[in-house]
Design brief:
Blueprint: H1 29-39, H2 48-61, E1 65-69, H3 72-82, E2 90-93, H4 100-107, E3 111-114, H5 126-132, E4 137-143, H6 152-162, E5 165-169, E6 177-178, E7 181-182, E8 189-193, E9 206-210, H7 213-222, H8 252-262, H9 265-283, E10 289-290, E11 298-299, E12 305-309, H10 318-327, H11 343-347, H12 356-364, E13 365-368, H13 376-393
Parallel strand pairs: 2-3, 2-4, 4-5, 5-8
Antiparallel strand pairs: 1-9, 6-7, 6-11, 8-9, 10-12, 12-13
Helix pairs in contact: 1-8, 2-8, 3-4, 3-7, 9-13
This protein binds pyridoxal-5'-phosphate.
């Protein structure tokens, strides 16, 4: 019998000599050239490049209007504002997300209500959302977790039945489709993040799409201090601050980068889909792994590839598997610590145990590296490391 190879954390040889990160941006020479051109232009802050980026983005996702802002978080704040969220209101969202999806309600003096997720996709469970609706509910913020669109038809129907706005946090799902229609053209308000780990980046940045011209106008006002006319469109000195807005503008320098990246979106998503398919095929042979469930009526954009461990088949918990994989130089991660578990939310009165599906998934999940520049050999290293580590800890 051949001895099992020792884990790197026990002094063995790691599967890879250098760490493979879980996500990484890609900036090419065309991107650099576009930014340099913007630097030589008359506008550094919000100007013609932002206009062009908005038009290009709207076209790419099939939306009538796109409004660029300074981050995905600003996009959520602005959409919640445009949806009329205010003090005394309730906003329903998922516990399995980045904190910003929930924080946008708090910024506006509203209360967050976390509804549990579906056990298969880990997206908001429409039945749990409907059960959480009260007379105070103003908005639902659904998150397309890992890049797979939420149950948008069901959620829109719930919204319509109760006169509640549906906001789609599509930070993970730029490039995804639902019933053959692109994310960005589905909900009344859709938000995107352009952070470097996301599908395309502007360094920091965000985008909002909508089919409603009044909402688009309100969003533009909000991103510019609540002032009703954009500086570069002003003909004289008059302007009015009609709302309490913020400086959430994107710069022309950033927009130039975004516009250049947008041209490659199709290729970037195609590569993510290939990587996900390669993982899913390979993991069919590993009984301790539950692979992500991909529903047939929607095509995911694969921002993340999240597996769940079948802990009953292992002698250790997720933490030990995580550490062993990091030891093998596989940059695994966990998305996400349930938002209501954070100490700030605890101080607001949230207690663990209220979202059994999300909380069980959290205890067992690992995000594996996935980004377009990964080679097939990188993917195979991850598979090899999973095989090595899970084989070591198998009961
Ligand atoms: C990244 C992300 C955000 C926030 O985006 P920023 O651009 O970092 O502000 C919000 N929601 C989700 C689900 C995200 O993944």
């Amino acid at each position: 019998m051949t001895a099992k190879p020792a884990l790197a954390i026990d002094g063995g040889r790691p599967v890879r000599p250098a760490m493979l990160p879980y996500g990484r941006h890609r900036v090419d020479q065309a991107d650099v050239d576009a930014v340099v051109t913007a630097l030589h232009s008359d506008w550094l802050t919000t100007g013609p490049a932002v206009d062009e980026f908005e038009v290009g983005f709207a076209k790419a996702v099939g939306a009538p209007y796109a409004v660029a802002v300074s981050s995905g978080t600003a996009a959520l704040h602005a959409t919640a504002f445009a949806a009329g969220v205010g003090p005394g209101d309730e906003v329903i969202t998922t516990p399995l997300t980045f904190a910003a999806s929930a924080n946008c309600a708090l910024y506006l003096g509203a209360t967050v209500v976390f509804a549990d997720v579906r056990p298969d996709t880990l997206n908001l469970d429409p039945a749990r959302v409907e059960a959480s609706i009260t007379t105070r509910t103003r908005a639902i913020v659904t998150v397309d977790y890992t890049g797979q669109p939420s149950d948008l038809d069901e959620l829109a129907a719930i919204g319509a039945r109760h006169s509640v706005s549906l906001i789609e946090d599509a930070s993970h799902s730029l490039g995804a489709t639902y019933h053959a229609r692109p994310v960005g053209s589905l909900a009344r308000l859709t938000t995107f993040s352009l952070h470097p780990v996301k599908h395309i980046t502007t360094g920091e940045g965000g985008m909002i799409t909508t089919d409603d011209p009044d909402l688009a106008a309100r969003l533009r006002t909000f991103r510019n201090h609540g002032i009703t006319r954009e500086h570069h469109r002003r003909e004289d000195w008059r302007y009015d601050m009609a709302e309490l807005g913020y400086n959430y503008r994107l710069s022309d320098i950033q927009a130039a980068l975004g516009l250049s990246q947008l041209e490659r979106l199709g290729d970037l998503i195609a590569r993510r889909r290939q990587i996900a398919a390669r993982y899913t095929r390979a993991f069919a042979a590993l009984p301790e792994i539950e692979v992500p469930v991909a529903l047939p009526d929607r095509e995911a954009a694969w921002h993340l590839y999240v597996v769940r461990l079948r802990l009953e088949g292992l002698r250790v918990g997720r933490t030990e598997v995580f550490r062993a994989l990091r030891g093998e130089n596989i940059g695994v991660n966990v998305h996400y610590i349930p938002v209501p578990w954070h100490s700030y939310y605890e101080r607001l009165g949230f207690r663990r145990g209220g979202w059994p599906v999300a909380e069980d998934a959290y205890e067992r999940m690992l995000s594996l590296p996935i980004f377009p520049a990964m080679t097939d050999a990188d993917v195979d290293d991850v598979v090899h490391a999973m095989d090595k580590v899970l084989g070591h800890y198998r009961r």
